[in-house]
């Protein structure tokens, strides 16, 4: 009997809750309708005022020069050279291609490619296209910072972007993806000007290639000098053999660094540019605005209903 009464009470409670929810929606239906309309209008306004951006992608693979048969024996030579206590690994623990990927969006690349044309396209909000110069930071905020800098509280920034700003821009906007079952390395950027984005990616490719090339070139020159000095004083035959092989390997590396071919990475196809803007995404924006607007409308709907209910009970 007690069990039956308990079940009946639970059913009555669930029924009351359902009635309350139904009444709340009926009482505040105007809020939901207004919320839906405002969400749709807000998403349209937001999308129309957003700057259209194109997807630009560059596809890279390791340069053939670093996968050729000339490099296939360097590992064995390195093992032989280690007998004489010599490390001839020119790229350290990373291959030239791995090193290329790690530095592509770094400060050295940003410093190398940073010029007024690149910076003005990367930071259009700070560039005065009519006067063809930077807008500068001489506003109220700048004046406050100027006086604070006089007493050493802040560091004054003239507001004009430089390679440091470009470095941060690359880190925030350049996206990379490594192929799962293939060596293809994808570098992408979304920008309102696909011509600029394409030129920027190409400059990054050339700069990163040159930096890896110069790094290996300098290390090879140092290694050759050191190995030659060791060879001049070494008397044991097997060590002299290892030293001569190591010098030969370093000379081959030096030869490849001095060639005009891509050293660490090269493009396998033309840069891809989307046929139409990929941003703003009207459907995504509409979905987000509808979810947020509907959630706020429902919350307002229940709040209004329970306030009215409390008021009625008080009366």
Compact description:
With 315 residues, this protein is an alpha+beta fold. It is 62% helix and 9% strand. It has two domains: 57 residues; 189 residues, Bacterial polysaccharide co-polymerase-like (2-Layer Sandwich), CATH 3.30.1890.
What this model shows, in words?
The chain has 315 residues and is of the alpha+beta class. It folds into 2 domains: 28-50 and 282-315; 54-123 and 161-279, Bacterial polysaccharide co-polymerase-like, CATH 3.30.1890. It contains 11 helices and 7 strands. The chain has helices at residues 2-27, 29-49, 74-82, 96-103, 107-113, 116-122, 140-150, 163-173, 194-233, 237-257, 282-314; strands spanning 54-62, 127-128, 133-134, 175-178, 185-191, 265-267, 272-273. Strands 1, 4, 5, 6 and 7 form a 5-stranded antiparallel sheet that branches. The chain has a two-stranded antiparallel sheet with strand order 2-3. A hairpin with a 6-residue loop joins strand 4 (175-178) and strand 5 (185-191). Helix 3 (74-82) packs antiparallel against helix 10 (237-257) and helix 5 crosses helix 8 (163-173). The protein is elongated, with a radius of gyration of 33 Å. It starts with a helix and ends with a helix. The model is unreliable at 1-5, 8-15 and 67-77 (pLDDT under 50).
The best one-word shape is elongated
N→C terminal distance: 38 Å
**CATH-derived architecture of the largest domain:** 2-Layer Sandwich
By CATH reckoning, the class of the largest domain would read Alpha Beta
In sequence order, what are the helices and strands, one letter per element?
A: HHEHHHHEEHHEEHHEEH
Stretches where pLDDT falls below 50 for ≥5 residues? 1-5, 8-15, 67-77
| CATH fold field value of the largest domain | Bacterial polysaccharide co-polymerase-like
Amount of beta strand: 5-15%
Can you count the helices? 11
Q: Give helix % range.
A: 55-70%
Give the overall pLDDT as a whole number: 79
Cα Rg: 33 Å
Q: Supply the helix-strand structural class.
A: alpha+beta
- The total domain count is 2
Number of strands: 7
């Amino acid at each position: 009997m007690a069990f039956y009464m308990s079940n009946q009470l639970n059913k009555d409670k669930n029924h009351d809750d359902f009635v309350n929810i139904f009444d709340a929606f009926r009482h505040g239906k105007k809020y939901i309708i207004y919320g839906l309309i405002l969400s749709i209008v807000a998403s349209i306004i937001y999308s129309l005022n957003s700057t259209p951006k194109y997807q630009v992608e560059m596809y890279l693979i390791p340069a053939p020069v670093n996968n050729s048969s000339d490099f296939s024996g360097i590992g064995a030579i390195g093992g032989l050279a280690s007998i004489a206590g010599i490390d001839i690994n020119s790229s350290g623990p990373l291959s030239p291609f791995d090193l290329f990927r790690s530095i592509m969006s770094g400060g050295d690349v940003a410093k190398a490619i940073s010029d007024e044309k690149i910076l003005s396209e990367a930071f259009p909000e700070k560039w005065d296209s009519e006067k063809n110069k930077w807008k500068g930071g001489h506003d109220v905020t700048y004046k406050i910072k100027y006086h604070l800098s006089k007493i050493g509280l802040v560091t004054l920034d003239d507001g004009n972007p430089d390679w440091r700003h470009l470095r941060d821009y690359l880190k925030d906007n350049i996206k990379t993806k490594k192929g799962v079952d293939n060596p293809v390395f994808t570098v992408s950027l979304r920008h309102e000007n696909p011509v600029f984005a394409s030129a920027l990616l190409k400059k990054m490719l050339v700069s990163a290639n040159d930096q890896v090339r110069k790094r290996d070139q300098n290390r090879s020159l140092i290694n050759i000098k050191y190995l030659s000095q060791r060879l001049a004083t070494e008397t044991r035959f097997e060590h002299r053999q290892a030293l001569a092989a190591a010098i030969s390997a370093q000379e081959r590396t030096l030869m490849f660094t001095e060639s005009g071919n891509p050293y660490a990475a090269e493009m396998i196809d033309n840069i891809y540019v989307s046929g139409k803007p990929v941003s703003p995404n009207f459907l995504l924006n509409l979905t987000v605005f509808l979810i947020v607007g509907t959630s706020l409308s429902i919350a307002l709907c229940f709040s209004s209903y329970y306030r009215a209910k409390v008021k009625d009970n008080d009366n």
